[in-house]
Design brief:
By secondary structure, the chain is mostly beta strands. It has one helix at 89-100, and strands spanning 15-17, 24-27, 31-36, 39-50, 53-64, 70-74, 78-81. It has a four-stranded antiparallel sheet, with no helix packed on it. Strands 1-6-7 form a three-stranded antiparallel sheet, with no helix packed on it.
């Protein structure tokens, strides 16, 4: 009997792994973010018009980000915490090699 797996995704995502000294200020389309002392502050200011309903969003979100967290870059949302476990290419190759053996 042969063994099969679902084809792994090869789509690459930009991002960073948070370290104690990681700091940045970034701006995406409608989002400004700052990471300092492992605290990520996200400010969103945008206006939407969906089917004639005008919506204005003006929010500020503050998150304490544990060291080692991988933040993934999104043009629309800035840095986000992915709902999926994210691997580096090297980690993915290592895991697939373990399956192969």
């Amino acid at each position: 009997m042969e063994r099969f797996i679902i084809q792994p995704s090869i789509k690459l995502f930009g991002g960073i792994t948070v370290k104690e000294d990681t700091a940045f200020k970034e701006k995406a389309t409608d989002v400004e973010q700052e990471l300092k002392n492992c605290i990520l502050t996200t400010v969103v200011k945008r206006e939407l018009d969906l089917q004639g309903i005008k919506t204005t969003e003006d929010t500020k979100l503050t998150q304490v980000i544990p060291v080692g967290t991988r933040l993934i870059w999104s043009e629309q949302e800035g840095y986000i915490i992915s709902p999926y476990k994210m691997y580096t290419v090297e980690e993915a190759i290592e895991e697939l090699n373990c399956i192969k053996e």
